[in-house]
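Internal QA ticket QA-208
Title: Verify multi-chain structure generation after dependency bump
Assignee: T.L.

Test input:
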Amino acid sequence: MRYIFKFPDIGEGLEEGTIVEWHVEKGQSVKMGDNLVTMETDKVVTGIPSPRDGVIAAKFGKVGEIIHVGSALVEIDIAGVEGDAAVEEARKPESEKSFVEAVEEEGAGVVGTLEIAGNSMVLSASREGVNSEKAASSKERKVLATPVARAVAKGMAIDINSVKGTGPGGRVTKEDILNFTKEGSNAKPISSGSEEFSKQSAPQKRVEIEQLSQIRKTIAKNMLQSKHNAAHMTVFEEVEISELERIRGKYKEIMQKEGVKLTYLAFIVKATAMALKKFKALNSEMDTEGGNIIYKRYYNIGIAADTEKGLVVPVIRDADKLSVKEIAKEIIVLSEKARDGKLTLEDMKDGTFTITSYGSIGGLFAVPVINYPQAGILGVGRINKKPVVKDDSIVVGLVLPLSLSVDHRIADGGETARFINAIMGYLSDPVSLLMD
Amino acid sequence: MFQVIDNDGKVINKRWMPQISDTRLLKIYKDMLFARVADLQIVSYQRQGRIFTYPPNYGQEAIAAAAGALIQDNDWMVPAFREMGTMLAKGVTLKELFLYFMGYEDGSKFENAKFTLPISVPIASQLLHAAGIGYAVKYNNEDKVIYAFVGDGGTSEGDFHEAVNFAGVWKVPVIFIIQNNQYGISTPTKMQTASDSLAIKAVAYGVKGIQVDGNDLFAMYKAIEESVKVCRNGEGPVLIEAVTYRKGAHTTSDDPTKYRTKEEEQEWDERDPMKRLKSYIIANKLWSEKEEEKIIPQFKEEVDRQFIEAENYGPYPKEDIFKYLYAEMPDDLHDQERQYDRFLQWKATKIK
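Actual output:
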């Protein structure tokens, strides 16, 4: 018979592991305890021994592939075990798995249980010796509900006591609330004494519930990770760019004929890449586990793009080696892909520094969140005409506001200021881009 | 540090060489070997997904074996979780230990081992129980000694202080055995305490203390033997720091390569307790490599046999979760059980 050996949870609450090396081949016989494969998990790198004697009938996954806990790792032909027992053995983990999934989807049981403790805020006093039935019946009167359900009910102004719960032990779940409003049955808004309020709080309109998209989940995770791990520090500057405007104006039309839209951003990307070459701390990341700082000798500039689905950051590779025109072309290609939702993982990985250019939409200064584990992010604000002092007289200047956030663990204040000075130098005197 | 044999198993401290008959010594060695074989097998079972998290004993066997050789049926065993040798000597079966690590309540119910507390995973809390038991033993004028175990990490817990202090004040018959295996998970002993050693803490508590080479079976045996005399004479507790090295991981969820060097591990391989005792018994013609080769497969088979018995133990009843904390279940727990029942009923409707 075939025994399917599924990757077990060898840590405490592991979800997956990566195959490091196979130690068996298809057709090879193994004894219980023989090493099958080396797996790397969050906790350890370890050999996984065979749980049975037999012959390897199939292996699942190549070196480098991720195997989820509960997924098949190998199939072993076991001599001597036949028939129903065998089938049952192979099947068993499957049914367990589907059960876990069912519970996860609902999630109500676990949350609901916690809620009981949370509701009274303090641990209940010992009721040892109190009449048991009485104690139980008093508990029955309380409406059990998950915090989510309570929040939804409150948001929809539904009296949760009038909803019949279908969760464990009669708990009111989120679905119960939603169904309740759909049925529109005895839906009684919480009486407020004000008809006006009742109207306003008519069901359905107060909240709209949308499941988190994968992209939103990723954004949330990355933002939080950055805020938790990096020591954010932001510096604001203004740079006068009349000269840049003049040059851009001159070449814009020439390039337009070639179908290239020459933007300020292209110059900013170039200036940033050039400045990064001078100040390596800003193009590095901190490896706290290894106790190292990793300086990158390649300059891949991420461009934060605003799309309908959310923030994405495609990357312009080796920006230091590209001309402003090439960068401008690259920006067009990437922004079209971003708009059409066609960016691949390849387009977005390996950035070493990020630029977020919100000024075209609005905003002078911002405190951008670092694209962790990068060391810095440059925010580009709205260009505006402003009085500036030139040769001791006030003239109309074209001012570009910059906001540079850095990871203060890596970049000191002096280094940060020198870095932004370098960028400003390139932008106020664009010809210098050709000099370095 | 108190030592009797060197790394090659040669006696370097004749004066304190304990008197152990050849047959008895051979039994101690075989028990150690059995524990080591079982320990390695269990780690393999864990990697096969057949048992939950397990803390290996690998490299520390001499300490538990020495205590196991001396502990009497009526003495109290208060374990932490890395004392397989003493547990087996007390009469706990491997199968019972397997059940424990498989999550069964019955894994704490030892059919044959008297006066043995369940395994204690919370760090150092068991020492308070040991001190309390010691107080009761003394109060009732019983002739019993309490063997209490803790790791080096556990000495940083408040419970350690309370227990040793209390035991010292009341002169209760407890032998506190600290298995200093150099790391509290990944924290090295140097970062665990500013004291020169763990044994020296005995001075502050006004109790007897000794630092012993925990990889030297004879030294451990002698130190415990003398401690038992101290306890039986009513001269109060003894604190033993057994210096050893955990050759395995802290538990199966730990990867020691992240915080130890190969060089360090090799250095401690030289001091391996099994290697040292084996050199001694082979030099004294009590044992041979051939005999060892013959016996290991038998041990493996026995370990497998008990493991498969545990694997086929069947599901445990729901009541197990609730009924063992109190002799009589209080109403709060009854309530929780009812709620759990309702949860299970609800869950049943969700599984297709």
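Spot checks passed. Chain A has three domains: 2-106, 116-120+135-200, 214-434.
Status: verified.
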